[in-house]
Design brief:
Chain lengths: ~325, ~270
């Protein structure tokens, strides 16, 4: 039973991706999509439907799956690390830092690729500052780490506001606002190819250390008494989760709720053991994000910002999870 | 054969010494009770013996090697820890919790195999709580949780199990069950070092007693020579009596005749 859950989740993800790739102004039936993918493997010229599919739809669906998987994996890792189910990947300020990098890039009128690079670098740099600050204040204290994250994140948010004030209100400000709300509109195959390696490299330590990360959620003293080097393990997890989150945010902008909510849903399905939680979170997160992004681009004539939609879905879902936990504990 | 030996040990946090001059040797297969008032440093001593905080002075040898030279997994092979309370935010099952005791025996990148799960199940069976294997650790009784933590220490296969007040906040039935379990453990294998606030528990289960006073060092020896009315009275700063019941059980109580006068220090 337990082994079949990830298989079912993987099948669900593939099904949702195929259906999502067919939805849009130019509708494509699921069987046609499968046929086109198989033909494409053989090479040759693309017809109109195939161009839509391979240049626009599939890159966007893949990007959504990648971002959803990345944010959910980072969220699950942070929740175990901080022994707190209410922690999201933003806890150490990665999103605020990435946001500052991106809005700075927009203010300077840089290219899309450069903006993404600045967002990525901003996310990594912010968490590096947070970790260094916490270490200087009191090494190894989890609470000091979280408080440092809140402080540095607030500074980054203030910097974002300052850039907004300075930005050209007719041209740059809408672009900044749109980026901060999160969107996958305009994602190219090159974006997916650029982000994928970073997400994979970031996921690797989480996969390898899957058992120990779960043990660490018992607390430092217990984990160490069980033979886990808590300090180096925590550093590895923070590094990996930051890399994953910064990569995702660089391509999608700030998309909230997913990294907080999806691990809860996954825990309902497979329990809290991180070796089971990680694959389930990756699959649920990818599925959720593909579905949410498909709604974002097909609900109305204009795109609904992805961050708005995930909050609209995530808020009520979280309330439902909390209501459930009146009888049972938080999942 | 000693499994752990502390010599002229000073313990504490940072530059604050909590207790010093501790000489404590624990033999394989023995039960040692650590008794002391609140704040004497019982938990600090445990954390030092587990290598969680460094000694401020003196030596701790684990299986002949200084504890500071050992890696975390190596210490875990020798010393297991049963914490006073275990609170998790997450709904781990009892079996999950016990399997975590195998961590030191797994490779850095490995997850437990079926043999580890089997070892955890047989530990649960040995402690009579196999039926709880799939239960949420937050939704079992305090006594059951203590037994689960003892099971986790067992699968760690360490030569010494350190238990921090395992009977605190347990009801009478669970307290007796846990004490009985501790006594039967040591007969079969690992030595046990257990802290308690109740000297009577030491009479019931201990081979050796360590009295840790506030700033008065640590007195170690057989139960009968160390646990005297005088020593206990001094330790807790109140006049106490040790009396034998008609069945031969020894109990400790206040010296009711004159509760305010402390006994003379020398007698």
């Amino acid at each position: 039973m337990r082994a079949t859950v990830p298989v079912l989740l993987a099948l669900l993800l593939v099904a949702v991706m195929v259906v999502a790739a067919g939805i849009g102004p130019y509708a494509i039936a699921p069987l046609e999509i499968l046929g086109a993918v198989i033909r494409r493997a053989g090479g040759g010229e693309m017809d109109a439907a195939e161009t839509v599919l391979f240049q626009i739809r599939l890159p966007r669906v893949l990007a959504a799956a990648l971002v959803g998987a990345a944010l959910s994996a980072a969220g699950a890792a942070y929740q175990s690390l901080f022994r707190n189910p209410l922690v999201s990947p933003d806890i150490l300020g990665v999103s605020s830092g990435a946001g500052f990098g991106a809005v700075l890039g927009i203010l300077l009128g840089l290219s899309v690729a450069a903006i993404q690079l600045l967002a990525f670098a901003g996310g990594l740099a912010t968490v590096a500052v947070v970790a260094t600050l916490a270490r200087a204040l009191r090494g190894g204290d989890l609470l000091v780490l979280v408080l440092s994250g809140i402080v540095v994140g607030a500074l980054a948010s203030a910097a974002i506001s300052l850039v907004k004030v300075l930005a050209d209100p007719y041209d740059q400000l809408p672009a900044i606002t749109f980026w901060l709300l999160g969107s996958l509109a305009g994602v190219t195959p090159a974006d997916v190819a650029a982000v994928l390696p970073f997400v994979v490299v970031g996921l690797l330590p989480l996969v390898l250390l899957r058992w120990r990360i779960g043990v660490l959620s018992l607390g430092d003293d217990e984990a160490r008494a069980l033979g886990v080097e808590a300090g180096p393990l925590r550093a590895a997890v923070i590094g990996a989760a930051t890399l994953i989150t910064a990569s995702a945010v660089a391509v999608s902008g700030v998309v909230g709720w997913v990294g907080l909510m999806v691990p809860h849903m996954a825990r309902l399905l497979v329990g809290p053991r991180f070796d089971r939680l990680l694959p389930a979170s990756v699959l649920v997160g990818a599925t959720f994000m593909v579905a949410a992004d498909t709604l974002a681009r097909s609900l109305a004539q204009v795109e609904v910002p992805l961050g708005v939609l995930t909050a609209l879905i995530g808020g009520p879902t979280f309330v439902w999870l909390l209501a459930r936990s009146r009888r049972r504990h938080l999942p | 054969m000693s499994v752990i030996a502390a010599e002229a040990l000073s313990i504490g946090y940072g530059s604050t010494v909590v207790a010093s001059d501790i000489d404590l040797t624990i033999e394989a297969g023995s039960v040692t009770c650590l008794i002391g008032p609140n704040g004497a440093g019982k938990t600090t001593l445990f954390k030092t013996m587990l290598g969680l905080i460094p000694p401020l002075g003196g030596l701790i040898n684990v299986d002949g090697a200084p504890i500071g030279r050992l890696k975390r997994a190596e210490i875990a092979h020798h010393v297991a820890y049963v914490p006073q309370a275990q609170f998790s935010e997450f709904a781990f099952t009892v079996l999950d919790l016990v399997v975590m005791g195998r961590t030191a025996h797994l490779g850095l990148f490995a997850a437990p195999r079926q043999t580890d799960v089997d070892a955890a199940m047989s530990a649960l069976e040995r402690l009579g709580i196999a039926s709880l294997a799939e239960r949420d650790i937050r939704r079992i009784s305090g006594g059951q949780r203590q037994l689960a933590l003892i099971a986790r220490a067992l699968v760690q296969e360490a030569a010494l199990i350190v238990m921090d007040e395992p009977t605190a906040s347990l009801d009478l039935g669970n307290r007796l069950l846990v004490l009985d379990t501790i006594r039967s453990l040591a007969v079969a294998g690992p030595a046990v070092l257990v802290s308690t606030h109740e000297p009577e528990q030491a009479f019931a289960i201990a081979d050796q007693v360590a009295l840790l006073g506030r700033g008065t060092g640590c007195e170690v020896g057989p139960v009968d020579t160390v646990l005297t009315a005088d020593r206990l009275s001094r330790l807790y700063g109140t006049a106490l009596l040790v009396e034998a019941t008609p069945s031969g059980r020894r109990v400790v109580g206040a010296a009711l005749d004159d509760p305010l006068s402390a006994p003379s220090a020398g007698s």
